[in-house]
Amino acid sequence: MVLESLINPLKAEKKPWEMFFVGFLYTSIAILLSLWVFREQVSLMMVFLTVVASIPIIYNTLKLEEDKDLKISKEILLLKEHNKAITFLMLFFFGMTLSFVAWYVFLPSECQQEVQCPSVGVVFEKQIATIQAINNLVSGNASYQTSLFSKILFNNVKVLAFALLFALVYGAGYIFILAWNASIIGTAIGNFIRSNISQYASLIGFEKFSNYFNVISIGLFRYILHGVPEIIAYFYGGLAGGIISTAIIKKHYKNEKFPHIVLDISELLIISLAFLVIAAFIEVYITPALFQNL
Fold this sequence. Notes:
Blueprint: H1 9-14, H2 18-37, H3 42-71, H4 75-106, H5 120-123, H6 125-139, H7 145-170, H8 175-197, H9 205-249, H10 258-290
Helix pairs in contact: 2-3, 2-4, 3-4, 3-8, 3-9, 4-8, 6-8, 7-9, 7-10, 8-9, 9-10
């Protein structure tokens, strides 16, 4: 297909920054098509269409990484090679997220005629409902940080398990979980930016201009601070599941190097769990301390 021809894993490893723009483009096209064809279910269909566009690059990446397991015997070199994939996939995720942020910020807050002018509440309906449910969960346990840490870590491990399962069963299917998370994070950041920019609406001139950028940077930093290690964890987990899935499809479990593949997958999962612990710690103990007045 046309979008598939834009990039491939080998090209992405050489120019990983291009994946940021590819992610932004895929998501924006998905949102436009969803508004045009699936207006009543746009909040879900835009994620689905983003996933459809992303599957070729993800699947080809999994095949490439599994081939590296058979060719590279040293674990340190193998992890460095895997990190190349993680790098451009993270940039791809950032592109998706920023696209959701941009659409959330610039869509109108409400419209009298939704058919001609879809509002942000309609386009991001499911994402907003999910964030409200998460906020209710957190606010009910905020006074018990240890308990909250355990709860957040457990929830993140569940998401990792789903990413691993989707990758194992569907190969590149774990991109659905990551695209959904990109839409959730994008909605949260977009909502933070819109809510705070409204406070400066009465300002004029350069002061207004500078406050806009201040709010945007704070909004991005607030969620990226713990979001980055969390998403890295999901990519490592998805990569592990995808590698074992590819190995099974190609019947490489009969290969004498299959134990090496299993060892590599185990290391990827351990790294993934370590990043989840770091992400939960930042979310519970660091982020609230830095942004308690915002």
